[in-house]
Amino acid sequence: MSQTVHFQGNPVTVANSIPQAGSKAQTFYSRGKRSV
User: Fold this and answer.
1) Is the model more confident about 4 or about 24?
2) Measured distance CA(30)–CA(14) in Å, rounded
3) What is the DSSP string of the chain?
């Protein structure tokens, strides 16, 4: 599964090659977006 995440206004494609890092990044990004 691949998800497209916008990091700093740049579209970045995150692959499931790193579930651990990806999971943490997804959660952190989600929280950050809500915070802003």
Assistant:
1) 4
2) 14
3) --EEEEETTEEEEEPTT-HHHHHHHHHHHHHHHHH-
CB 15 within 8 A of CB 2: yes
**How many CA atoms, within 13 angstroms, populate the side-chain half-sphere of residue 11?**
3
- Which single residue is written with the structure tokens 């998800």? 3
User: Using an 8 Å Cβ cutoff, are 16 and 22 in contact?
Assistant: yes
**Angle 22-6-18 (CA atoms, 0-180°, nearest 5)?**
15
- Which pLDDT band holds residue 23 (cuts at 50, 70, 90)? low
